[in-house]
Design brief:
Number of domains: 1
Distance between the termini: 17 Å
Structural class: mainly alpha
Order of helices and strands: HHHHHHHHHHHHHHHHHHHHH
Radius of gyration: 21 Å
Oligomer: single chain
Amino acid sequence: MPTINRNQLFIASCLALLVTSLSFGIRAGLLNTWAHEFGLKQKEIGIITSTAFWGFPLAIVIGGMVVDIIGMKKLLVAAFVFHAAGILLTIFASGFWPLFISTLLIGMGNGTVEAACNPLIASLYPTNKTTRLNYFHLWFPGGIVIGTLIVRFFGITIPDSIYLSNWKLLVGLMFIPTILYGFLFLKLTFPPTERVSSGISTSQMYKSLLKPLFIVMLILMLGTAITELFTGQWIDVLLKNVTNNAILLLTLETGVMVLGRGLAEPVVHKLSPAGVLLMSAILASLGLYLLGHSTGNMLFLGAIVFGMGVCYFWPTMLGFVSENLPETGAVGMNFIGGAGMFAVSVYMIFMGGYYDRLVAAQLPASADLAAYNAAPGGSDMATALNNAKALAGPHIINTTLTIPLILIAAFAVLFIYMRSRNAKPLPLATAAIANSYEDQ
């Protein structure tokens, strides 16, 4: 039997997720640049950004259904191809459609990475899934921190006229981790998925998706994903005209997420996954309230609290399903992730149009948003547009606040239910395989 190098597989997985997060961080900082350079309306920006979020579920659902058949390695080679093609097309984009297609490709690459890496982490660490998934997903906010700092650095140190024509360099930086993870995965040996190693049949796996607990978690994932990812991706757009440091709010929020996920083990063991989710919903609600009702330095407090709230959402939802519904296998984890991303894509499109309507309501009745977006800085039209956006952004955040408030009630019920439910023992075959992996 070939040696499974657990540590190297984990490192390569983190690099692959880094590409995913860089695409979020760099793109989040470039949305206003693209709107200005290509004369795009906010609804068009919403459609472009949402494309990554429905390209993701398309790839993760299909990947989850075939990963047990073709293996995790082939899926990750496909992810490399999607990422490389998407980055290239973004660099040579000239308007709406190239940005749309390139974002779709990158979204499919992101989804394929998770389709393979989530079950890979669960297979490598079957006795500590939630903690290890938090460590793995640490690199999502970590990459956003890196990406937003890169965008912020270029925005400060390079004059705007040059910056707008050199954003392609920022996108090209994503090639570095893409090439690294592609090289590592090509040379490493992969284990079978946990579902296969445990002897659970394909029919058992699909039947388990109809269990009430799984359906409940699928629905709750819609809310946790929207709360975390919509706010993170749009924070620069929503608060740019409220503060001069909107992109740094995203950097601060995701920095807190990195720290929180790095400390996941004691938190998860003390509170349990259901307890962590309840705590997260409470803090996310408070953070969104502060972001939507504050100005100045209080916005940074809001970003810190919000980051504390959402940092455990995604990996803990996946870990909860993998630990409490292990028979759902890779399909279960990937359906959960795909549902979350699909919800974000729909929400982004809806909120993009809603944002434009809120802005238009603050402008003259015959105002052309495209003309206002293209107006030179300092002009009356640009000032009027900025004032309108300063009112619209917090309104969108306050509307989104409704979602984590509902999650508080839902996770409180889940927490009570899980305390009364007996835990299932880990399959002996899975534990034996995990103990045979080498950590080198």
